[in-house]
Amino acid sequence: MNQAAIRHTHLTRRTALLGLAAGASAALTPRAARAQDVVRIALPTKTYYPTVVTEAAIRQKLFDRQGIGAEATVYRGGAECIEAMAAGAADVSLGGPGIIGVAVRKGVNLKLVATSTRVNCGWYLLVRADSPVTKVEDLAGKKVGITSAGSGSDVLALWTNEAKHTPFTRVPLGGGGLVPNLRSGNVDAVVLYSPLSFELILAKQVRVLIDYAAEMPPQLVGGWAVTGKLIADKPDVVQKTMNALYGALLWMRANRDAAIALIAEVDEIKPDVAAMEYEQTILKLATDTSMGMDELTRALETAKLIGITDTAPIDQIIDTHFKPVGA
After folding, report:
1. What domains appear along the chain, each with residue ranges and CATH number?
2. pTM
């Protein structure tokens, strides 16, 4: 299996032996815990805010202060994280109500326990700086690049079709194909994520048509999900894990320069891009971790845009007993 490339001065690497079809992974700062309980955190990708927040919690010894250990592993996407939890190889991950609802419907015992973000941080609809397209409606009948069908970018593209009454052709290009195809003119616009979106914006190579964090109605875009087994067997570990993760977010909000340096290191990006990631992502993450019914319902409605309709009822996919201290 190929390991995901992660470079830190104090970081070791391993391949997680999960017996899954696509289970290549790498450990993010695994720490040999002195505590009896070790929580295993599955992260969807390396350059993503949950990875930075988790790394901050580890470096600031917030898990240690809670009396537990933590082992964080980076996978190749959210689906692999859910597979790892279903296989008993991970305890905690980030997910949205749609994917968690489908997993629960299929018999996987998971629960969302806290809101992580209510907005699509760092996601933009972008055109080239020299494009004749000046507004979303100009894209009618044109081609817009997305990563793949059913992806987060596809959700946002379909939402744009519906909200702006602008039909365009969605072209799946893969994550690595979005920018080259935009530059070459093969597509007229792309739905792009951070920090890549920030790099292009700061370089003035693109113009923003939609900032999805600002324009989409608030909803539970992402939340921390925990296995039902951990909730049932060790609810105190769940509470301590949330305390550490949200404590890390509060530390980042209170320590701007150190947080930007950490983002630059973990994501391997330039300081100015890391600063934009801090301002446009970290500072927009939820500090109120409650899960409102309206936000959950809206998230499930949005998931229907890509055909996610057969989900478990909301009361079967959430657990509201855990309140992160200080969050």
Report:
1. 26-119+219-317 (3.40.190.10), 124-215 (3.40.190.10)
2. 0.84
